[in-house]
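Suppose you are handed a protein chain with no further information: no name, no annotation, nothing but its sequence. What can you learn? This example shows the usual starting point.
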Amino acid sequence: MSTRARLTALFAALGALVVIAAVLTIVLRPMAVSAAAPSAFEVTAGLDDCGRGLGGDAATSTGGATGESGTAHVAGGDQTFTVTNTTVGGMEVYLQSVDSKRVYLDLESLGAGAHAAARITLGAGRYRFVCLAADTDPVRGPTVAVGTAPPGSRLTPGVVPVTRTDLIPVAKAYTDWVSSRLPALLAHVAAVAADAEEGDLPAAKRDWLTAHFTYETLGAAYDAFGELGDQLDGLPHRGLTGFHLVESQLWQGAPAPAVAVSARDLGSLVDRLQTQFADAQLDPGDIALRAHEIVEDAIQDTLTGATDAGSGTSLATVDAQLTGAGEALAPLATVLTGRYDRLADTQQALADARALVESYRSADGRWTPLDALDRPSRERVDAALSQAAELLAPVAAICDPRRDS
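A reasonable first move is to predict its three-dimensional structure. Written in structure tokens, the prediction is:
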């Protein structure tokens, strides 16, 4: 499934997008509607008629007029656009500020002959539609001068699109971080095997927890792990392998020699992973999406107990997943600054969720099992993770790479 397809599914679940398109302004902030009736425009999106109906043919619109210079002039404030793809293929359409290059409307995957309607509030400036068909250069529509919006209007915020070029340093920084953690992971797993070989199963449990925590922080790289990832940490109900096989043996009373064999096998998998990842190239567009998915997985799988193979340490796994989401978010800070006004809130939500989860670990390092949480505690944990996931969803949308227009 493509990154765009995953984003579509993501927002369908959240109910955060209109059906027709991924509209950045809806993701960023709800839009207030002013009392004045909106200007309405029928706009075409094609290779020869991009933006016609707003500037190129003012007579086909309501609320537009053409000045002496030939440039269309539109009143500021609420605007309603019905955009029609006049080509025989799919199309992406932006409404863009000519001067700042900020995008105020982004209609994705507009099919041949399809219509999409949207309503936004524009302030003074120069705007144009940009039509992006597959395998062709961007087509820019005529420039339209928009006047000052009525007093009290809540203007739609624009976002500077993120390109794959912007995200290449992010992917490199994150790849380097994951690479730096794999030797530590290998050492932690080796410690589990050594403990078991010495017959010290309490120590093996402690070292297993450390090793599993390290692995769970690497969530934004899981796609690059491929089948090895499933062997290392697949859901227990699909078969006990890797970490969960060792977990089951340790907490179900298996003899130390059996644990040692499984731990050595786990070490071999991690060694293969380290070799494989040395040649991995992470998709630059995936990091932000994975940051959100890590927390979603924590809610859907870990907090339901689906990832527990007997240790009762699901909250330790959640702690690691929140750490991993933060590590994925960290290299995106430069890209998000100036694009997402709730970046600091998102970072704080992850930190607060971690602090809450860690409050259920005792001084001796033991974690409270999920089934031992009382209802208020469980509700606080659920709410904290849901808040973090909600704030991370716009990060995924904003950093979904778009073509340079």
